[in-house]
Write a structure and sequence with these properties.
Shape: globular
Strand content: 35-45%
Low-confidence stretches: none
CATH topology: OB fold (Dihydrolipoamide Acetyltransferase, E2P)
Largest sheet: 6 strands, antiparallel
Number of domains: 1
Structural class: mainly beta
Number of helices: 2
Number of strands: 10
Helix content: under 10%
Radius of gyration: 14 Å
Distance between the termini: 25 Å
Amino acid sequence: MGIDEPDIDPETFLSDVEMRIGEVVSVEEFPEARKDVYKLEVDFGGETRQSAAGLTRYEKDDLVGRQVVAVTNLGAVTIAGFESQCLVTGVDDGDGGVIHLQPESEVENGTRVY
């Protein structure tokens, strides 16, 4: 595995992509989706958004209360009738699952990632 993408301007990245810390407040099954995903409600400190996220390696109760890193300015995407309003970030666990990204220590919900 190499790093194959070309370099981008860091100032443009930080001004174009808005990532924030949010806390998962609810998790529901999403059997209508083609992929194995959950419906999440994520609190960004004053605003709650929903996301379709492939974090099904976790039990639903284990996700509630966890902080996640999410891209909040991609616009909404409709998946099987569900409006996903943010992208919860994660990495491949090597077995087809997704490990969510989170801050090392708890921070205030809505904190911007930079």
